[in-house]
Specification:
Helices cover about 30% and strands about 25% of the residues. It has a 7-stranded mixed beta sheet with strand order 7-6-19-18-20-21-22, sandwiched between helices. It has a 5-stranded parallel beta sheet with strand order 9-8-10-13-14, sandwiched between helices. Strand 28 and strand 29 form a beta hairpin. The longest helix is centred in the first third of the chain and has 17 residues. The two termini are about 45 Å apart. It binds 5'-O-[(S)-butoxy(hydroxy)phosphoryl]adenosine.
Amino acid sequence: MKEKENFYYPSEEFKKRALINKKDVYAQAAKNPVKFWEKMAKELFWFKKWKKGFVHNPPYFQWFSGGRINITSNIFENNSLGFERIKNKVALIWEPENEEEKEKKLTYYDLFREICRFSNALKKLGVKKGDRVGIYLPMIPEATVAMLACARLGAVHSVVFSAFSPRSLQVRLQDNEAKVLITADGYYRRGQIVDLKKNADQALDQTKVEKLIVVKRAKNKIAWQEGRDVWYEDITKDEEDFCPAEEMDSEDMHFILYTSGSTGKPKGCVHTCGGYAVQAYYTAKWIFDLKEDDIFWSTADLGWITGHTYSCYGPLLCGVSFIMFEGAPDFPVPDRWVRIIEKYGVTTFYTAPTAIRMFEQMGAEKFLNDKRMKTLQILGSVGEPIDEAAWQWYFKEVGREKCPLVDTWWQTETGGILITALPGIGPFKPAFAGLPFPGIKAEILDEQGKPCPPDKQGNLVLLPPFSPSLLRGIYKNDEKYKETYWSRYGDKIYFTSDSAYKDKEGLIRIVGRVDDVIKVAGHRVSTGELEAAINAHQEITECAVIGVADKIKGEVPAAFVVYNGSLLPQDIKDQIIAQIKKEIGPIALPKEVYLVKDLPKTRSGKIMRRILKKLLTGEDLGDLSTLSNPEVVEGIKKIIGSDNSDG
Ligand code: WT7
């Protein structure tokens, strides 16, 4: 790696091997982005070629209009590498949480037959093209199989992260009206069995789910509802191992994935068949420089968009082998992740800054040495801003300054990576995501909509033709779609809700969200959603949740709560935590709950979260004259001070 004023470039040797190593790809693509994407799309298999590359009807748009495709045909029988070539090659390597248990390796052919059997079984349960299917599974191979089996049939999968609570699952199932839910009996997390079936059972009330398919994983005892519940094993074992792929229109729905927005209700991002397949394939191939002999490991759970695109579809479309790990990277030993990288000879490692900071914090350099993780060639980071220190640690200690480090920016909405360096080109600049991917036009605008000069912070937007994999809508909520993405700068400019700036070379640094979303350990949570969960508690009058900086998790929620005083302070705090676990899940628990008498408000009654944030960071509060109740500020200050001194 060559260093130049804190920039790094790939070594000559790396460059020579890289799939993409010439800078002119950017200029070429920029000349005519639609043509560029069409050229890319031609490498995939289409039942019928598209008529028009990009059709724009603001705020709606289409890609590869009129084309017909199935993503699973492109993974299996029509894989760009040729099915004969990859048929008996390992696709999925599954590493169980318990190291004593044997790993599983499924070849492309194994996976293909399993998917077909499951597709046939789903058909028998009445699942057809366009039907929504809920998936609530841990990180086990059947989760991949379930997603692909749906795609094979043209059924729309909606994966819900297994750590989400029954209530979260229920809300999503109610919104998408799935008839079938796929879950497991249980799974292992830090040595304990999580009773997933019980959660699923609780979620089905007041939904349209008629069949609950249960995968046997932990063999824990579960309740069973005759007529509704079926074992995955039973319905698949006698099925035929071939199922024809449904010919999907390029713009047909492929999947719905829920994410948090600025209100209490999650939004169902709609992704389509053609554009998503093209972007998943190209970004995986170019950004991770995926070649036939690579072993790819993206640590993201399938419940998130990173899991969809880079722990499933992307590597499969590229015909490589990839790892799926059931457990936590630091369990049962802090260097479990290192052991996995070594066990399988991982070449590309893609994870979140929170994990990197955690490894750093545990003093991982103690067990890293020149003999470890020698197979690594590329490192990736995703999901939240990576600070310079964590970047340097990752680059130096894990990559030994030999591996290009790609900091990839994107969103659930964008379906694939849009801003990043390319490993064979560079530069890799700490804390900067880099340039937009070839064919992507991103800009940073000021409040008036004028492009910001270098170093000036503004709003990150995407300009037409956007990206083939950008969401096409919010499921059953067109108003929200228009309002969230296409109103800030008009209906021809996609508003990302991120703030960013460019350096003189045009490299982009992401600063963070400008809406009510906070990124807790890379997970997206909305403060509105947390507030709604807390407010659902009877004794609570009102509350405000804000994000505060955290050394490991990036950001964590802090809650300011006004309650009627009927319970002991510790009891109400415990109940608030329990309430959030129930409504959302354990992923977004507040670090602190401050019980206050009142919240700072404007004369019109709006809670001033900005003031609360400043009180926590100790920043100057500025002018308080706009508050209707400036006197509450002192009281809150004292409460924060005393809580902090308690430790
Ligand atoms: C938000 C999207 C990216 C897929 C997983 C998260 C933040 C994402 C980066 C990055 C700085 C990043 C943004 C974005 N974000 N990647 N490389 N550097 N911030 O998807 O849960 O929909 O979250 O994550 O704020 O808007 P998501």
